[in-house]
Design a protein that fits this description.
By secondary structure, the chain is mainly alpha-helical. It has one domain. The protein is 77% helix and 0% strand. The chain contains 14 helices and no strands. α1 packs parallel to α13 and α4 crosses α10. It is globular, with a radius of gyration of 20 Å.
């Protein structure tokens, strides 16, 4: 006799649980899109303030490091068993190099460029890493998607090249470098398999330990003593709470539930949200090349993901 759990009509408890986990993963990825968009706008806004990149980085990593340290301690045995290369990839990938490249790049390039180039070109770098280090083949559908992303990047950068806007081009190159760093972080975190809060804690602790000597030896400058309390409070919310705590947890949760490719597909909405929000908040305009590039990159990311829900990368 067929049990209710084996019925083709009535879903089993396992199917319901899997469906709930998937929905939670999608919800987490959408929250990350909103946080990323707000973070891009806040960093761009800070380019005209007295706060330095070091100040933003300390907010981004220092405060979350203290809050997340208990989760790191709780997962210490699992962390000790994790290959050191993965831990280094997580710390450097989304740590100081990523923050410096993205924050400095946003001083020269508009928000829509950052939204397109960082999460948009991320699948290209992930695929290159999978091909180089894991010898994974690229299927035709993914190749088409990656080609659309590259077309979108060319369309986005072409006016900058033709008009010889070297400062904007400098910012765009930094944003591409930040995307490559983020790909390293994502793949390292995925294969490490650590709990999301512990993974975010390792990133913040490692980055803080790198920042403190830079400040001690006077290599970096701080402008926090001259900044207004309102600006400091706003950046604390976006850097420490948003990017440091919430985004780190929800991104790790989405990666674990959906896989890197499906998470990046949802992340392709970031340039849309960030670009539209930058219009009223920063007074930026969406040019025709930017809109065409946005369409190409967004559809390219969706095509590259294969839309195979629940698929996880092995790299």
């Amino acid at each position: 006799m067929q049990s209710p759990s084996d019925s083709p009509v009535i879903p089993s408890y396992r199917q319901i649980a899997q469906g709930l986990q998937f929905q939670l993963g999608v919800f987490s990825a959408m929250l990350v899109v909103c946080i990323w968009s707000g973070w891009l706008i806040s960093v761009r806004y800070s380019s005209d303030s007295l706060l330095q990149v070091f100040d933003l980085a300390m907010m981004r990593y220092g405060i979350p490091a203290l809050i997340l340290s208990p989760f790191v301690w709780k997962a210490r045995k699992q962390i000790m068993l994790t290959p050191k290369g993965y831990l280094i990839g997580m710390t450097l990938g989304a740590g100081i190099p990523f923050f410096y490249l993205s924050a400095t790049g946003l001083q020269y390039a508009p928000v829509v460029h950052a939204g397109l180039l960082i999460p948009g070109t991320f699948p290209v770098f992930v695929t290159l890493m999978a091909m180089l280090f894991y010898k994974e083949p690229v299927n035709p559908k993914r190749l088409i998607g990656l080609s659309m992303i590259l077309v979108g990047v060319v369309v986005l950068l072409l006016p900058t090249l033709l008009n010889q806007e070297l400062s904007v081009l400098k910012g765009d190159m930094m944003l591409l470098g930040a995307s490559a760093c983020w790909a390293i972080y994502t793949v390292s975190m995925r294969v490490a398999g650590l709990p999301p809060l512990a993974a975010a804690g390792i990133l913040c602790l490692g980055s803080t330990l790198l920042l403190l000597p830079l400040s001690f030896f006077g290599i970096v400058e701080s402008g926090i003593s001259q900044a207004s309390s309102t600006e400091i409070a706003m950046q604390l919310v976006m850097q420490a709470l948003g990017a440091g705590l919430l985004a780190g947890f929800f991104y790790g949760f989405a990666i674990n539930r959906l896989g890197a490719e499906n998470t990046s597909a949802i992340g392709s909405l970031t340039p849309v949200v960030a670009g539209l929000a930058a219009i009223p908040l920063l007074g930026e305009a969406l040019s025709l090349p930017a809109m065409i590039g946005m369409i190409c990159i967004c559809f390219g990311v969706l095509k590259a993901s294969g839309l195979k829900l629940g698929k996880r990368i092995t790299a």
